[in-house]
Design a protein that fits this description.
Elements (H helix, E strand, L loop, with lengths): L1 E7 L19 H16 L6 E5 L2 H14 L6 E3 L7 H11 L6 E6 L3 H10 L10 E6 L14 E6 L1 H4 L5
Parallel strand pairs: 1-4, 2-3, 2-4
Antiparallel strand pairs: 1-5, 5-6
Helix pairs in contact: 1-2, 3-4
């Protein structure tokens, strides 16, 4: 069994209309929610063995904040293909990139693909707002066995607005 943590990037800023979508950073709420999710990950003893993130600035910043607060000790991997990726692409990236020894993998990226991935792997459609985190248990021994048809189990789903002291 492997554990996949699916994290949508924290809330981003639309203040600078001259920026390309890929270059938007986090807004005030995003810079609060990302560390809160890292704290939750640490509290739940889910600190990942490996993290891979979209290259978009808002996803990078989210991944970096979560990694620091959750006490992740590795190096975050950044993957251009995760930028606005569909579920099949996300699965393909995990298959070829996640180290076999990693028991818990955290991926950071964007909707609609990340929300759809949770639905495809668990059979449960969920509201997946910014900084939402899903914990999925997968019946695979190696990450290269993961497919879009893998039937995982949604263990938990946390949304920042619902935490109310959960990460304390």
């Amino acid at each position: 069994m492997k554990t996949l943590l699916v994290l949508r990037h924290a809330k981003s800023s639309w203040k600078d209309h001259g920026l390309e979508d890929h270059d938007r950073t986090l807004n005030k709420r995003g810079t609060k929610d990302a560390p809160a999710m890292g704290k939750l990950i640490r509290k739940k003893k889910l600190t990942p063995d490996w993290i891979q993130s979209s290259t978009a600035l808002r996803a990078r910043k989210t991944a970096e904040m979560v990694a620091e607060v959750s006490k992740f000790s590795g190096e975050i991997q950044f993957e251009e293909e995760l930028y606005l990726a569909r579920p099949a692409t996300i699965v393909a990236v995990i298959q070829r990139s996640a180290p076999p020894s990693a028991e818990t993998v955290l991926i950071v990226g964007h909707n609609p693909g990340f929300g759809e991935l949770v639905e495809i792997l668990t059979g449960q459609k969920q509201l997946f707002p910014t900084a939402a985190l899903a914990q999925i248990e997968l019946p695979v021994e190696r990450w290269d066995e993961l497919t879009p048809e893998t039937e995982g189990k949604l263990i938990d789903l946390w949304r920042p607005k619902e935490l109310a002291g959960e990460s304390e």
